[in-house]
Amino acid sequence: MGFEYRADELWCDDVPLEVLAERYGTPAYVYSERALLTRFLRLDAALAHLPHRICYAVKTNSNLAILGALARAGASFDIVSGGELHRLQRLAVDPARIVFAGVGKTAGEMRAALRAGVGMFNVESRAEARLLAQVAAAEGVRARVALRVNPEVDAGAHRYIATGTAAEKFGIPIAEALDACDEMAALPTLALRGLHAHVGSQILDVQVHAEVARRLGSLIEELRTRAHTIETLNVGGGLGIRYRDETEPSPEAFAAAVTDVARTLRVELIVEPGRSLVGPAGVLLCRVLYCKPTAGKVFVVVDAGMNDLLRPSLYGAYHEILPVRRHADRTPVQTDLVGPLCESGDFLARDRALATVNAGEVLAVLGAGAYGFAMSSNYNSRPRAAEILVRGPDAALVRQRESLDDLVHGERDWPPAVP
Fold it and tell me: Coil, strand or helix: which one is 323?
């Protein structure tokens, strides 16, 4: 599903990737709508026995075509900025299906979200709750909120993507949660209706989510004894995927891990998947520029770098790399696959046994649908890549490659040059 070899050509659904590389150029992100929706619908079916909402984490991949496909399939959305709200407004998504999370919401973003009518705010601190109450009062509305609790559950993730322990910036410490809820409920323009936690990303053990659900469930029971009306339990997202040899948790296993708590408490279960839906549904295509043999390895220089896919440089992340056209007679060689940027950290793979390649050939970096284009930049004044969506036998350019003029849009010299 999504990406597979047919004979010796790598295809996305019913389109050869080599055709897309020739048609649209490289670097380019290619997404399989079929893979994306299959993953969403399987999770939805696994949770069908419970009142639930699947709020796709927009930060993982915010292309309008990805958001539109998920909206038509019935997804709700988890946003963390006013810009992400704007994207969903462009698609006329029902604002009641939007949950506004994020640790640093501004008053302006709050105001825009209240005017749009978003369904809920995930509040991260007492200070944020007070500001939201003030903004809501000025707008003459009451904001529906959930408190983000830091449940002190270690998800075992890379330290940059761990969010559930006291060392991180997110949420209210669990020991303070009851008092914080009392304080929020006393603010007349806030309606406390839920609890939220998100403990990290690339989580491979569903018992992490089970423990989060249990700890939040105990808080909900206590809050109800204090006459709080708690209607939602949001256990976050973070389900991991296979990048190398990981065992990917199934949607059914995840659902089983959180079902008992949600059913016992009779709450609506909210989940916030991102990577687990769109990660395996995307690849980054790049073209080989040069091959530079050394004594111990070969440096293969491609036209995509850390500005296009930051994860290997930032996290040391592993992405499988395949030739778009494979050759059975080629033997693996020890390779560093590197980009064109002036940085020693500009690489897509290090010390990897990859089949010999030649200049001009196209490679596919797998598992790049999440946190790929979304984290890309114009570093070294490089235009950002094109994005392509494949739907069965059809493909469409869903984001044009940036031009050189795009790089300087909005800039000006000062003082102006003298003619």
Answer: strand
The secondary structure element, H or E, covering residue 300 is: strand 298-302
Tokens for 3, please give them. 């990406």
- CA-only gyration radius of the chain, Å: 23
Evaluate the CA torsion angle 352, 356, 358, 363 in order and state its sign. Answer: negative
Spell out a b/e string for 214-236, using b for 16 or more CB atoms within 10 Å of the CB, else e: ebbbebbeebeeeebebbbbbbb
Tabulate helix, strand, coil % of the chain (nearest 5): 35, 25, 40
Place of tokens 């839920």: 194
When pLDDT is cut at 50, 70 and 90, the band that residue 162 belongs to is: very low
The closest of 350, 354, 358, 352 to 287, measured between CA atoms, is 358
3-class SS letters over 140-193: CCCEEEEEEEECCCCCCCCHHHECCCCCCCCCEEHHHHHHHHHHHHCCCCEEEE
Q: What is the 3-state secondary structure (H, E, C) of 20-82?
A: HHHHHCCCEEEEEHHHHHHHHHHHHHHCCCCCEEEEEEHHHCCCHHHHHHHHHHCCEEEECCH
Please state the rounded mean pLDDT for residues 293-309. Answer: 95
What pTM does this model have?
Answer: 0.94
**3-30+279-407 CATH:** 2.40.37.10
Q: Which residues are catalytic?
A: 342
- Find out if CATH 3.40.640.10 is the number for domain 62-273: no
Which spans in 195-274 are helix H? 206-225, 251-265
| Pure H helices in 91-139 | 107-116, 126-139
Domain ranges of the chain: 3-30+279-407, 62-273
Mean pLDDT within 83-89: 98
CA dist., res. 187 & res. 130, Å (int)? 8
What does the alpha-carbon distance between residue 408 and residue 414 come to, in Å, rounded to a whole number? 14
Averaged pLDDT, 403-414? 94
